[in-house]
Amino acid sequence: MDTTTPQDLLPPSLPEPGAPEPGALDASLSRRGFLRGAALAGTGLVAATVAACAPAAAPTWTFATSNPLPAPATPTPAPTPAATPTMSMGPASPTPAPSQPTGDIPAGWSEHDVAARTVVRRFIGNLAPALKGIYGDAAFARLADILGAADNYPELSQPPAFAQVPQVVLTDLTSPLTPTLDGDVKVFEITVDEIEHRIDEKMAPVQVLGYNKAWPGPTIRATEGERLRVKFTNNLKETTGVHFHGIDFEDFFMDGVPFVTQKPIPPGETFTYEFTASPAGSMMYHSHHNATDQVGRGLLAAFIIDPKDDRDPRAAYAKKYGVGYDREYTWISNDTQPGGFTINGHGFPATVPVIAAVGEKVLIRFMNEGIMMHPWHSHGNTMRVVARDGRPLGSASFDCDTLGVNPGERWDAVITAERAGLWAFHCHILPHVEGLDGMFGMVTALVVVPEKAHVDAIYKALGIG
Ligand SMILES: [Cu+2]
Question: If one looks up domain 174-311 in CATH, what number appears?
Fold first, then answer.
């Protein structure tokens, strides 16, 4: 494995590193995004979900005659019109009709099994060939068998689902939101817009709202103690107000609660919030006006305040929270209409996986912008929880594999990647993650690869870095 070069890992159907990438993948990564710092972009090796979850599931669903899977048609399915995500606890799945099966349904399988496999095929897409160079021939053979690669199914030649939609969190890595300076004040300018947004690559776009035309909005990042001025221009046809969540404001009129600390921002007008970034930690900003509706429609984003320190932000983090990190991943959940159960504005298989090399530490900043608690379950690798709402837990830091995150809360968890493999990573309220058509919603994967060069290769394959 030591002699493997990144080039060896590239799926043949992906562009050469550095070559212009005209496709959706490139477009999706052209904005700010994902993980800052070094982040974990996504890869799609997600058979994790397959390996970790599927074998244990013995589906007992029955398929009502009124809700049959569509008849096989073309190899490449058209987008399902207006598949409306649902947050009901019932059996209805918000996922669109999956790709049609290629070949016969294996003996003993149901249509559910075929649909469930198809979703994972979409998640992995044309990164599947890279698994061979990363995990070796034997593991690759098993994964290929699990996926049914011999079918030469359509998704083998398509980018992973998460690479076919804009991924703001991912592109934070490549083009973070950059302020201008007015003296010592960092000035950010953000618009509030009506947008079309894709929950995944197949569902019809939903009409929602976004900061800087993105859901989630751009991550605002600052260092503790810095003075910030953030201007929001309301391009909506309705009023709004913006709250920076978790901040110790000196001036309560900056708190962003219409009719308590300000009047709502009318359409066409700009409101400026100015405050000192404090305390350090994983914070958020979101609408605080008609918020059940506006946050549910996408007015939510991460606000990260790095600890003040003379050293770099990661060293400062290690000093304050007791553990450092090599990679960083922002994980904003939401669970209302019209998006349904989402991580960073997308539902599985369009959720970007967390990727790390063995031995690397990944900081995950869980942020719950929804209306219900979600217990995030990490397969195969322990989470070390070091902060709640930005505040260090210190000696109360703890290890776990399932971490409940309530609405409004932020928890920082550091995973030390210990075992290579494809590991499911999902909410453990089962109706949030699995339906008649297999997994959907609040599911992604932790992809642990043997060496850092594999991470780099995956990024290159995805057109990042
Ligand atoms: Cu959940």
Answer: 2.60.40.420
